[in-house]
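INFO  loader      accepted 1 record
INFO  loader      residues=422
INFO  predictor   begin
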Amino acid sequence: MIKKEMIAMLLAGGQGSRLGVLTAKMAKPAVAFGGKYRIIDFPLSNCINSGVDTVGVLTQYQPLRLNSHIGIGIPWDLDRNIGGVTVLPPYEKSSNSEWYTGTANAVYQNLEYMESFHPEYVLILSGDHVYKMDYELMLNAHKENGAAVTIAVMPVPIEEACRFGVMIADEKGKIMEFEEKPERPRSNLASMGIYIFNWKTLKRALVEMAGQPALDFGKHVIPYCHGKGAPMYTYEFMGYWKDVGTLDSYWQANMELIDIVPEFNLYEEYWKVFTKSEIQPPQYFSDDSVVERSIIGEGTDVYGKVYNSVIGCGVTIGKNTVIRDSIIMNRTQIGNDCEMYKAIVAEEVRIGNHVRLGVGGEAENDMAPHIYNRGIVTVGERTVIPNGITVGKNSVISGVTTGADYENFSLGSGRTLIKAGD
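INFO  predictor   done
INFO  writer      dumping C-alpha cells
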C-alpha cells in the first residue's frame, strides 16, 4: 500500500483578473517572474526543498502553458514513480460533471487522488504567491501542538487586515476566533492561504460541506472545523511573502529582486528555486550597451541601455534603446531608438523602432482604472507595436496593431487599445 506522511494540493486554477492582459491567455501561476521563472515555481520549489514529494496541481483557467511548464516535474525532482507531481484538471464523471467552483470544491473533487496516498496530513497551497518557506517546520509545529488544522499567518498592518482572513489567537497560537475579510479587524494576523490539515479532519469537512455553492476554505471549511471544536493553531511566518495579484504588486516584487541587498534572494545555494529552463546561449552585450542594477535572462542580446529592470530570456533590445524601471518577458523583440519607462511587456511582443512607452503625464485608465494604474504601461502577449508610436502612462495595448489604430501615431495616457480576437 502507498503511504505518504504529507501530500500537497496546489491551487493553480485562478485567472488572476487583476493582472489584466497578462492573464488573458494563461493562468496567473504561469505568468513569468524574475527574468526566468514562473510564479508557480516558488511553491513547487518550496515543496521539494521541504521534503514534500507528492503534489497535486489543480488547474482550470487557460491551463495549457501551465501544463507544458510543469510537464512530469523533472526540474523540481518531482518525476517520481510513486507520488511526484500530477496535474489535476476538472474531468468528466459518470454521474455529473462540473467545473471547480471554489478553492475547497477543487480539492473535494480530488478526494480519490488524495485517498490513494493514505496521507496523515494534507498541505493546501496557493500557486500565485512568491515566497520561500520550509513546510517541514510548519508540520513539526502542527504535530507539537496536537493540531487538527494549522494556518500559516503573517502580521500585516492593521489597516490592510480587512483584505485577509484574520486569526485571533491566544499566547500559544491556538485560534480562538476566525474572521474572513472583516470590516473592523481585531487582529493583524492574516492568513497566507497555506493550511495543514489532518487528513481525517479535511475529508470530513469537505464531505459534510460539499453542498455549499463555491465551496471555499476561508468562507466554509475553516469556520466548519472551528465550529466542530477541532484544535486549530497559527504558524507565524516572518519571511518574505508577496501576493503578486495586481500589476502594481507584480511590478514591485520584480523591482525588489534588483535591490542592492534584495529582501528576496534568488541566488541562495541552500534554498534553490527550480524552473523549466530552455537551452539558451549566454547573454550578449554590445560595446555600446549599458546595464545597471538589472536582471538579464539567458539568450538576451542587449545593444541599448537597461537601468533598474528585469529582462527575460531570448529578448533583443535594439541600438540606442533606453529601458528604465521595466519588466520585459521572454522572447520579446524591441527595435532601435526606443524609450520605455515603467512598462510591463509580456512574452513574444514585437516593438518597432522609435517607440516610446510610459511618457507624459498621468491620466486614469478609461476602461479598468482598478487594474491599470500607478503609471504602469502594460503590453499583452504577442502584441505588435509598429514604428514611431508614443504611448502614455496607465495605458494598455494588446493585439497586432498597425499605425491606423493610433491617432497621430500616439496612444494617450489612460487609453486602452485591445484588438478583438487577439
